[in-house]
Design a protein that fits this description.
The chain is α+β, with helices and mostly antiparallel strands. Helices cover 14% and strands 27% of the residues. The strands form 3 sheets. Strands 2-3-4-5-6-7-8-9 form an 8-stranded antiparallel barrel.
Length: 468
């Protein structure tokens, strides 16, 4: 069997036996012990240049001591001293004693598991002493792999490593030595201090709330306090007087999504427009009920029923002083005095004849040679209808007249039709038909000469006469 294969087989066997024979006891330590001190034992295999090719596979006993310090859960430092007696070749140096010390860093791969694998590097010094009287001091480097299992009072360590000379001397020849070692040991914790896993100032042994978030203030048993009951602990809470029921951010300060001064969680109207005055529940007020909230409403006393603009002020499209929504006559001409409903007062009653003298209706027009009233006639006839309705005791005859253009028979018929057209218009405006009659007089009652255009225009007329 080759030397290297035999060495690896023996080292693996030692580690396997150690793992199998050590019971897996759960660590329950209430203390942290960053330091450790302990004893080591194991076996070593010497370089054939040191012990001879026939003796390099011999199992040589190892003893030693160790001191370590865990700077973090991952990084530690160590110092070790060991002694090995190598069974040597009588033709070389005989038996050789090895005194060595080693110092260096150590890294833990899975520091949270009970079985923690590690790797270490070290440098140190070694002194070889031969039975034949030779002595040699050298520097060496080391690479080790192993596993560590911690308990409340100590830890089991198992490791395989190789040591390689970094310097040579002449006492035992000029060749470098590479030695292999399998080490098992037990260390006791030193520098004990109470463990405080969540770093809240209460040791784990007394901490009834062991997972306190960092920065929280806690009571004597390690449980976080929350004076305002908002779910963010004292110490982290930057707004420690949050009203009950308010939603808060990670800093413990109230949330107010719509910026109305009522916090989310209490706000029953979560989308209040900016600037609105709200009640204790966050709902906007609208004192004049115009649809524009108080605070935004620049005209807070709008009469009920008025339409308003975005500022809450009444709209008055026709400028008559009566707002849209209440104004029943929205197209009132500018300058016209209106009533409370926005309508002009009824026109003053037109003069109604109290005798049989005829009153000529002005601005009453017909289509040429027809009895069809033009639109311009409505204003004058509406006033007549209003006057008649206001004077229910007066009965009238509507009299139609023409000039002398055309035959007398034609003009009589035309004047009669025009008088009837006026009478029917007045009836359509609410005048009792029983109070009206119509008669055409044709060319028989001129009021001016028919020899001039002006005179003929005066003769083409419609008048009102008092009837019995």
């Amino acid at each position: 069997m080759r030397r290297s294969t035999l060495n690896l087989w023996i080292a693996a066997t030692v580690l396997a036996l150690g793992v199998v024979t050590v019971p897996a006891v759960q660590a329950t330590s209430d203390e942290e012990r960053p330091g450790e001190i302990g004893i080591l034992t194991g076996i070593a295999f010497g370089d054939e240049n040191l012990v001879g090719s026939d003796n390099d596979a011999h199992v040589n006993p190892l003893i030693g001591g160790r001191f370590g310090w865990h700077f973090t859960d991952i990084v530690a430092g160590f110092f070790e001293m060991t002694y090995v007696t190598y069974k040597g070749d009588p033709t070389l140096y005989g038996n050789v004693g090895e005194y060595s010390f080693l110092v260096g860093p150590e890294w833990y791969v899975n520091h949270k598991d009970p079985w923690q694998f590690f790797i270490n590097l070290g440098v140190g010094g070694v002194q070889y002493k031969s039975d034949f009287g030779g002595s040699d001091g050298r520097g060496f480097g080391s690479l080790g792999l192993g596993v560590r299992r911690g308990w409340e009072k100590g830890a089991l360590r198992m490791e395989v490593r190789t040591d390689r000379d970094l310097t040579s001397a002449n006492g035992l020849g000029s060749k470098d030595f590479t030695n292999f070692k399998a080490v098992i040991g037990w260390t006791w914790g030193v520098g004990a201090r109470p463990k405080d896993t969540d770093e809240d100032g209460v040791i784990d042994k007394k901490d009834k709330c062991p997972n306190t978030p960092k920065g929280c203030l806690v009571d004597a048993v390690g449980c976080e306090s929350d004076a305002d009951g908002d779910g963010v602990c004292n110490g982290v809470d930057q707004c420690p007087d949050t009203p009950k029921g308010c939603l808060v951010d990670a800093k413990g300060c109230t949330l107010d999504s719509d910026g109305d001064g009522v916090c989310d969680g209490k706000d029953k109207c979560a989308n209040t427009p900016k600037g609105c005055t709200v009640n204790a529940e966050g709902c906007q007020a609208d004192a004049d009920d115009d649809g524009v909230c108080d605070g935004v409403d620049q005209c807070p006393n709008t009469p009920k029923g008025c339409r308003v603009d975005a500022k809450g002020c009444p709209i008055d499209s026709d400028g008559d002083g009566v707002c849209d929504g209440i104004d029943q006559c929205p197209g009132t001409p500018a300058g016209v005095t209106v009533d409370a409903k926005g309508c002009p007062p009824p026109p003053a009653p037109t003069f109604i004849p109290i005798a049989k003298e005829e009153v000529v209706l002005e601005r009453v027009f017909f289509a040429t040679n027809k009895a069809t009233l033009t639109p311009e006639s409505s204003e004058s006839l509406d006033k007549v209808a209003t006057s008649l309705i206001a004077n229910p005791g007066v009965n009238l005859e509507v009299a139609g007249h023409t000039d002398n253009t055309g035959t007398a028979k034609y003009n009589l018929k035309l004047s009669d039709a025009r008088a009837s057209a006026v009478m029917n218009y007045l009836i359509s405006k609410g005048v009792n038909p029983a109070r009206l009659s119509a008669r055409g007089y044709g060319i028989t009652e001129p009021v001016a000469t028919n020899d001039t255009p002006e005179g003929r225009a005066q003769n083409r007329r419609v008048g009102l006469r008092r009837a019995e």
